[in-house]
Amino acid sequence: MTKILVVDDEVSISKLIQFNLEKAGYEVVTAFDGNQALAMVHEEKPDFIILDLMLPYMDGLDVCKTLRQERIETPILILTAKEDELDKILGLELGADDYITKPFSPREVVARVKAILRRYKAKPEQEKQQGTERQYSFGDVIIYPEKYEVFQDNNRVELTPKEFELLHYLASNPGRVLTRDQLLNAVWNYDFVGDSRIVDVHISHLREKLEQDTKNPRYIKTVRGLGYKLEG
């Protein structure tokens, strides 16, 4: 059974999420502050983490940062207040997979969890089906999909899982204009209309890591009014 760690210091919210996840067939464990969350990750080894950003002792952003520094790649869905746009962006920069704003629908939380887990669980099977190692290249960049590695000018580029998946999808459709909704569907695998700003944030991160001039990118081009395409 898939185990989910829910981290929120508001007991009523934690119980609401737990009830709906258990109803959907998941095993749920809970933590109520940042320090406890880190301990639970190491003890319980959850398959998924729902992480509130406003936590006692250690906030959710620091929890997320610590986990990614420890190379723990468990998918993370962060919970934020509606007005905290900066926290959403920081959470994504630190390696969270997605965010959802309070107040939220419990059904939406379950839907997001299912969508993200489907994406993660599909990876091993896809890798098993590959007889030989594929690679994509553009300019001085090489992508190794099975290894989840990217090199630029023979130097490894450190990407979060979602940054890698977005770059991989762009590289597998070279020269093709991809709308934000197409990218949202392909990379985040949503079954409903999501917030396309998450795509813009990740595109910005990729440019910072791969482009010499982010204002005049060589590889990841913006097609005004439509979306993005990869050239090279």
Could you give a short description of this structure?
Helix 1 packs across helix 5 and helix 6 packs across helix 8.
What distinguishing features does this structure have?
232 residues; alpha/beta; Rossmann fold; Arc Repressor Mutant, subunit A; five-stranded parallel β-sheet; four-stranded antiparallel β-sheet; 8 helices
Helicity range: 40-55%
What overall form do the CA principal axes indicate?
Answer: elongated
Computed over alpha carbons, the radius of gyration is: 18 Å
Strand content: 15-25%
Structural class: alpha/beta
* Fourth-tier CATH superfamily name of the largest domain: Response regulator
Mean pLDDT over all positions: 87
**Named CATH architecture of the largest domain:** 3-Layer(aba) Sandwich
Q: Remind me, CATH topology of the largest domain?
A: Rossmann fold
How many angstroms does the end-to-end distance come to? 44 Å
**How many structural domains can be distinguished in the coordinates?**
2
The arrangement of helices and strands along the chain is EHEHEHEHEHEEEEHEHHEE
What layout of secondary structure does this protein have?
Blueprint: E1 3-7, H1 11-23, E2 27-31, H2 34-44, E3 48-52, H3 60-69, E4 76-81, H4 85-93, E5 98-102, H5 106-128, E6 136-138, E7 141-144, E8 149-152, E9 155-156, H6 161-171, E10 178-179, H7 180-188, H8 197-210, E11 220-223, E12 227-230
Parallel strand pairs: 1-2, 1-3, 3-4, 4-5
Antiparallel strand pairs: 6-7, 7-8, 8-9, 10-12, 11-12
What does this structure look like?
The protein starts with a strand and ends with a strand. Strand 4 (76-81), helix 4 (85-93) and strand 5 (98-102) form a beta-alpha-beta unit. The chain contains eight helices and twelve strands. By secondary structure, the chain is α/β, with parallel strands linked by helices. The longest helix is centred in the middle third of the chain and has 23 residues, at 106-128. Helix content is 43%, strand content 21%.
